[in-house]
Design a protein that fits this description.
The complex is a heterotetramer, with 1 copy of chain A, 1 copy of chain B and 2 copies of chain C.
Chain A: E1 5-14, E2 17-27, E3 32-37, H1 43-51, E4 58-63, E5 66-68, H2 73-78, E6 81-84, H3 96-100, E7 107-108, E8 111-112, H4 114-127, H5 143-156, E9 161-165, H6 173-188, E10 192-196, H7 200-206, E11 209-214, E12 217-223, H8 228-236, E13 254-263, E14 267-275, E15 279-283, H9 290-298, E16 305-310, E17 313-314, H10 320-326, E18 328-331, H11 335-339, H12 346-351, E19 359-360, E20 363-364, H13 366-379, H14 396-409, E21 414-418, H15 426-441, E22 445-449, H16 453-459, E23 462-467, E24 470-476, H17 482-491
Chain B: E1 14-19, H1 25-41, E2 44-49, H2 54-66, E3 71-74, H3 83-91, E4 96-99, E5 110-114, H4 116-131, E6 134-140, H5 146-160, E7 165-172, H6 177-190, E8 196-199, H7 202-212, E9 221-223, H8 229-237, E10 242-246, H9 248-263, E11 271-274, E12 276-280, H10 284-287
Parallel strand pairs in B: 1-2, 1-3, 3-4, 4-5, 5-11, 6-7, 6-8, 8-9
Antiparallel strand pairs in B: 10-12
Helix pairs in contact in B: 1-9, 2-3, 4-5, 6-7
Chain C: H1 10-16, H2 20-33, H3 40-65, H4 73-90, H5 95-118, H6 124-143, H7 153-160, E1 162-163, E2 167-168, H8 169-187, H9 189-199, H10 201-206, H11 211-237, H12 248-258, H13 270-289, H14 294-318
Antiparallel strand pairs in C: 1-2
Helix pairs in contact in C: 2-13, 2-14, 3-8, 3-9, 3-11, 3-12, 3-13, 4-5, 4-6, 4-11, 5-6, 5-11, 7-11, 8-9, 9-11, 12-13, 13-14
Classes of the chains: A alpha/beta, B alpha/beta, C mainly alpha.
The complex binds adenosine-5'-triphosphate (2 copies) and magnesium ion (MG) (2 copies).
């Protein structure tokens, strides 16, 4: 009997790039089939052929052995294919309920039946235990919650095939667990699931089979039980010994110092310091206020009280520009909304933070800007047809590399990284860690916010644990363990805000 | 019941005149004309100045209605906004006469205004006179507006009445000086040898003057319309050859005379055109004060 | 946010229906400054004067909520009037047919806008700018540049008559159209799609909404409303003017944006638009009553518009 | 894309500088239809006629690239002309002072727009709409509603004189302003910030760009350009008209958008804008040469604008 879904010889070209080159893929009902590959390998492009976002240049798609043509999202829906995209696809101005049922609102006498819609949404959200009100507008939600809403949206259609493109990237531990429960439930109902993630442990936990792509080509199809080293070798083409290659460098004088920073309902008397050569990790569950803290330090949000000192100077008028000039860099967690400038080229995006520094008498040193950008593209191995490519066309992970590169070019002496490796592949992660090493060795300091605990434990010299908008405790690299961190993190939750 | 009472030579009759504004010499002259005629006719003339305020004018007319005047002369601030006021007068069956500007609705016995058709014709004849023979161009006003239509019609009549001079180009410049300049420049490309230009208002004419600079008024004759100060100046300087002036005082007096006719139950024309005057270098001094 | 729950009770309005605060303040000032202002007569007068612009603006609201813009509404209004006038005054067609032709031609113009934007792949600004010019030209061609009348009495009553002897029919029509707009925006599938498309077109497409079809509908609606406004205007003037509607598009768009909608799409409400139109109307009426000189009027209008909207945005900002 | 390397050779233009294809097609058609079109004289003549709009549009390009819109440019142009006219004709101030006052007043108006948008937190559409009304009003108040002249001879030459006896000075000025705009957009810090802010304001802010300060500058620049255009216009008319510039904003914005810029910001080039202005200019000039009737002209203008831009967008789409 033929598999639920089969893709044969799929090829997709974009100007300057062949995203997919004769790729085969198949999916059985009740199976979780993992797509694995580096950033830019072609995973999202492949699944977008199924969701109706792109059409293949060559190759065919078969459902139950029958060739099908998926020309639009509507076609995909009618075929029972439901997708969670890597980039958020919610309408910020609309409510959670309406986003969930977008395009499929329940109707009575041809009119949208709000009450009914709200009820169904609440029921659904409770079933998957997401604590947001159906009437909240999405724009008021945080990344984590948005992700959960996306998941609810995808589940609201009873699909035969569910596609999840990096659904866990912006979730923290317990939420991932919740998601996996749901997935197991769906397997019971013989739903076929395509699962994309850069977390290999997730692959083993939830996956059945793994299809590996590299540079848009099919590499191999193996059982999910295959050991990580092997998977990595297939993905990257070379083995990776140490996943967290932290090289500690003796920490120097204090660079960044934050004194009793407070903001009504968000931050409570936060104090911390980052020394030269140090990586300070901040752990905590979603809603802990880590992003708010980062934004407050960088001057992006107003604070009620507190001081930020950089290299012995108090930052008076707290604005991002002042922070940048003092040598602070900020890699935001919301890449699409706050990281990249979509219509601009890769080179332009790389140059953004160093633009002012490379300006003499109002004129920008464009040649220099461009040269430095090209170098950075090589240093970070950004997959792009060229520096002129509009960044919106880069794969998620490669966009993230560009955002990091932007601050490297601004040679910041303290880097605040909010979820720096979110959506970044194993190979690139290691590259980023190596970068952190180089930075700290060259005397910079790093404040790393991450929901990926192993990452925090692996890379941080000190771990601050946040909860409920305050620092619940500090652990030295040696003593820090998952258990201790979670204990501290959850201690805050009863006082949690929002 | 009213109106029959014309027996005692109009004595005791009162006519209300609502003027759009008196900060403009044109309308001051209109009022003077009306008052003079009222004296001759021996009627009382009430005058109100709406100061270019449509709703003010509505109130003025409302007052006339409550005062039970025998007839209302209205020089609308806005031919649209005046309609309700006129209708309320109709309601009290007081006859309404429109001066200089028509009304878009309501029952108006007659509209007394400058004869733009005749003005266009005069301008045309003057241009033919000036040019003698050859091609001329016309600069049209905003398409679809009354003055544009009537002045254009008159001009064409004058041109069609003879065959020494023909219109080689007729384009709109929307009553605007800048467009008058641009369009004239363009016309000069396709017909470099135009002998004269008729502009449906002076603004466009002055634009043409700019386009032609030293050829203006000499090689290429220019006739405008409205007799605005800049144009009168241009005529004195000889860069424009003629323009058309209206006669507000006549509009005023004719207004009163016809109001009396209506009160006495006589019928009057639906439209009463008022003579316009040709301004040339010879008589320009009469118009500049 | 506005899209979420557009109720019509004042408190809601204050928070989402645009600068009601500004409008109230404006009215209070006018009442103090002029004895004529706060009279039934004058208020209905204002209502009658804004009716045409308000109806145009309701149609425009659909477009702006969906992230587009329709510059052609003024000309399309003129075209509808002329086609209607031609049908009654020249071709002597029965009234219903004439109405159908007038409003139909406007809707068709809107449909063409939509087609240029979806099939022709033109930016809305360009497509509707082209229509602005073309529709005006057609109105002139059809009418030969002359006003067409008489307009049938039945229609003239629509312009000048009133209900219960004191509520002007134009105001009634405006209120009906307002209710219709509220309904469409809040409760119809297409209405919801407008907010979705305006908020995130790609997400809407990926959620299975056929964006192109919706856009065709949206611009057709805008044309339709412009057509109705055109009939109303020629009813008030008792004549169809080839030039009528000139520069109305600016007033219509202004009403929508003053009403709290964002030109980047996704927000906007019918009530906000109505308030925007009222602010413009009250302002002009008031300045007439106070008989401010024509020159200063424009200065004041500018200043007041800025202030009125600021009351709104500043409050929003304070709310964080 | 456009923002990164705006070269000026035709192939580049074809791909980024807006609908050069449409312009060329238009010119070919005109050349076939009218023997007078393709003459040095007429081409310079077109150049002279678009100079004012083009300069306005260059200023508008800054605003639109940064994701805003400036409706006030037309009125501000008028204001600058009147202030200048008043300074020379009424106050008899020396020419340099008069120029400073005229252009300065326009720049100030722009600065106020910027302040309303940044500090006042108003949508650009509202802020500049308010200025549209206020600036026009001020021009009328200052001039008392009458044209102010004479304009000093030196300036009049700027309007009517030419270089080497055949290149009209307005064209020279336009080219200078074009070069200036190219330079600002391509090579200055603020220029690059315009693209960044238009592309993603929040990301720009979080990259250490002080968005507010840049916006102040952007709108001031737009005002400044409008001021220069105003002087040029009064130079051409040898008189300062309180009404001049009425509805120019539409032409200016149209030129920018026809030139390939998106009203949602982040894209647009000086050359594209120039092409946009040329399309409008050639179109009007050609219709005059062909002596098309006033009514049909508007229809044709609409159709051609749509076609011209379609050639561009369709080609882009074909390229995927
Ligand atoms: N619309 C597009 N235009 C041009 N190039 C594109 C487009 N979409 C994707 N690409 C290119 O296709 C390749 C594959 O992209 P894709 O998003 O599928 O990678 P991915 O496997 O999802 O990577 P990641 O793990 O970072 O999400 C990349 O090189 C990307 O630059
Ligand atoms: N429980 C919650 N209630 C309300 N908002 C929340 C909650 N959790 C997260 N958010 C929102 O999600 C965003 C990120 O979460 P926040 O910064 O508060 O904590 P965090 O630890 O940074 O979370 P994250 O792990 O997503 O970075 C913020 O904008 C916050 O408003
Ligand atoms: Mg991807
Ligand atoms: Mg966070």
């Amino acid at each position: 009997m033929s598999p639920l879904l089969e893709m044969r010889g799929i090829t997709k070209r974009f100007p300057g790039v062949t995203a997919l080159d004769r790729v085969d893929f198949e999916l059985e009902g009740g199976e979780v089939h993992v797509l694995l590959g580096e950033n830019g390998a072609g995973k999202s492009t492949l699944i977008k052929m199924l969701s109706g976002a792109y059409r293949p240049d060559e190759g065919e798609i078969l459902l139950d052995g029958e060739p099908v043509r998926i020309a639009s999202a509507a076609d995909a829906q009618s075929l029972g294919i439901s997708t969670i995209y890597q980039e958020f696809n919610l309408v910020p101005e609309l409510t959670v309920a309406e986003n969930i049922f977008l395009g499929r609102q329940p109707r009575r006498f041809g009119l949208v039946d709000r009450r009914n819609m709200r009820a169904e949404a609440r029921e659904l959200l409770e079933r998957i235990r997401v604590l947001v009100e159906p009437d909240e507008t999405v724009s008021s939600l945080g990344v984590a919650q948005r992700q959960m809403v996306e998941i609810a949206k995808a589940l609201s259609v009873n699909a035969r095939i569910l596609i999840m493109d990096e659904p866990t990237a912006s979730l923290s531990g317990e939420e991932v667990e919740r998601l996996f429960e749901i997935v197991r439930g769906l397997k019971e109902q013989r739903v076929g699931i395509v699962f994309i993630s850069h977390h290999l442990d997730e692959v083993t936990e939830i996956g059945d089979r793994v299809t590996v792509l590299r540079d848009g080509r099919f590499v191999d199809r193996v059982p999910a039980t295959t050991d990580h080293a092997e998977l990595v070798r297939m993905m990257v083409g070379r083995p990776i010994e140490d996943q967290y290659p932290r090289r500690r460098s003796e920490s120097g004088e204090v660079l960044l110092e934050v004194k009793n920073l407070s903001r009504e309902g968000v931050l409570e008397d936060v104090a911390l310091s980052v020394r030269a050569g140090e990586v300070v990790g901040i752990a905590g569950i979603v809603g802990a206020g880590r992003t708010e803290l980062a934004r407050a330090i960088f001057g992006a949000d107003p604070v009620d009280s507190g001081e930020v000192w950089m290299e012995g100077h108090k930052i008076e008028r707290a604005t991002p520009r002042e922070a940048k000039r003092r040598g602070i860099g900020f890699i935001t967690e919301d890449r699409q909304g706050q990281g990249i400038v979509p219509p601009l080229s890769v080179a332009e995006n790389l140059g953004l933070a160093s633009l002012e520094a490379n300006t003499r008498v109002g004129l920008v040193d464009r040649r220099g800007q461009r040269r430095r950008a090209v170098e950075m593209i090589e240093d970070l191995a950004v997959r792009t047809p060229g520096p002129e490519q509009e960044i919106r066309y880069l794969s998620g992970g490669n966009q993230q590399k560009v955002v990091i590169g932007k601050w490297l070019l601004a040679d910041s002496r303290v880097l605040i990284m909010d979820e720096p490796t979110r959506g970044v592949d194993v190979g690139a992660k290691v590259e980023i860690y190596e970068l952190m090493n180089e930075l700290t060795q060259s005397g910079a300091g790093i404040l790393m916010i991450s929901s990926d605990l192993p990452e925090v434990l692996g890379m941080a010299d000190r771990v601050l644990v946040m909860g409920g908008g305050r620092i619940q405790g500090e652990l030295a690299a040696g003593e820090a363990t998952q258990e201790k961190v979670m204990a501290l993190a959850t201690r805050g939750t009863e006082t949690a805000v929002g | 019941q009213r109106g029959g009472g014309g027996g005692d030579e109009g004595g005791g009759e009162r006519i209300g005149l609502s003027i759009s504004t008196l900060n403009n010499p044109f309308f001051v002259a209109l009022r003077d004309g009306a008052q003079k005629a009222a004296k001759d006719e021996g009627v009382e003339l009430l005058v109100s100045d709406a100061q270019n305020d449509a709703s003010q004018q509505q109130d003025d007319i409302q007052n006339y209605v409550t005062q039970q005047v025998s007839a209302i002369l209205v020089n609308p601030v806005d031919s649209e906004a005046i309609v309700p006021a006129i209708e309320s007068a109709n309601g009290a069956d007081i006859p309404v006469l429109a001066l200089d500007r028509g009304a878009e609705g309501g029952e108006v016995v007659t509209t007394i205004a400058s004869d733009n058709v005749q003005g266009g014709q005069m301008a045309g004849e003057e241009l033919v006179e000036l040019v003698g023979e050859g091609g001329v161009a016309q600069l049209e006003g905003i398409p679809g507006t009354d003055p544009a239509r009537d002045r254009g019609q008159g001009f064409e009549e004058a041109i069609n009445a003879q065959d020494a001079v023909e219109v080689v180009a007729s384009q709109t410049a929307n009553f605007d000086r800048n467009q008058g300049l641009n369009v004239t420049e363009n016309i000069l490309q396709s017909s470099p040898d135009v002998k004269g230009i008729f502009a449906q208002n002076d603004e466009m004419a002055l634009g043409a003057v700019q386009a032609l600079d030293e050829r203006a008024g000499s090689e290429v004759k220019i006739v405008g319309f409205d007799a605005v100060p800049d144009a009168l100046q241009a005529i004195q300087d000889g860069t424009m050859n003629a323009t058309i002036a209206q006669q507000p005082d006549q509009i005023g007096s004719l207004g009163v005379e016809n109001a009396m006719k209506v009160i006495d139950g006589e019928s009057v024309e639906e439209n009463i055109p008022v003579e316009v005057k040709l301004v040339t270098k010879e008589n320009v001094s009469e118009f500049t004060e | 946010m506005a899209s979420l729950t557009e109720r019509v009770n004042p408190r809601e309005l204050l928070s989402r229906g645009g600068p009601l605060g500004g409008l109230i303040a404006l009215c209070v000032v006018m009442t103090i400054l002029s004895p004529y202002f706060l009279t039934f007569n004058n208020l209905f007068n204002v209502g009658t004067q804004i009716a045409v612009i308000a109806i145009l603006a309701f149609g425009q609201t659909f477009v702006i909520v969906s992230g587009g813009i329709d510059l052609s509404v003024g000309s399309v209004l003129g075209l509808a009037g002329i086609v209607f006038g031609w049908a009654t005054a020249v071709a002597n067609l029965p009234l219903p047919v004439a109405l159908l032709l007038g409003i139909g031609s406007a809707a068709l113009a809107g449909l063409i806008n939509g087609a240029l934007i979806t099939l022709g792949n033109l930016p809305p600004f360009i497509a509707t700018l082209a229509m602005l010019s073309a529709a005006r030209g057609l109105a002139l061609v059809i009418s030969g540049g002359v006003p067409l009348n008489p307009i049938p009495g039945a229609i003239r009553t629509l312009g000048s008559g009133d209900l219960f002897g004191f509520v002007p029919l134009p105001v009634i029509l405006m209120i009906v159209m307002w209710a219709l707009t509220v309904g469409i925006l809040r409760s119809t599938y297409s209405g919801r799609c407008m907010y979705a498309i305006g908020g995130n077109e790609e997400a809407s497409r990926l959620s299975g909404i056929s964006v192109d079809r919706q856009k065709l509908l949206i611009y057709t609606l805008s044309g339709l409303f412009a057509g109705i406004a055109g009939i109303l205007l020629s009813a008030r003037l008792a004549s169809a003017q080839p030039q009528s509607g000139f520069t109305f598009e600016l007033d219509a768009i202004a009403a929508v944006v003053i009403g709290g909608a964002s030109l980047s799409g996704g927000t906007g409400t019918a009530s906000g638009t109505l308030i925007g139109a009222l602010i413009l109307g009250v302002l002009r009426n008031g300045l007439n009553l106070l008989n401010v000189s024509a020159f200063w009027q424009q200065v004041v209008i500018g200043v007041v518009i800025a202030l009125a909207v600021m009351t709104d945005t500043l409050r929003r900002r304070r709310k964080g």
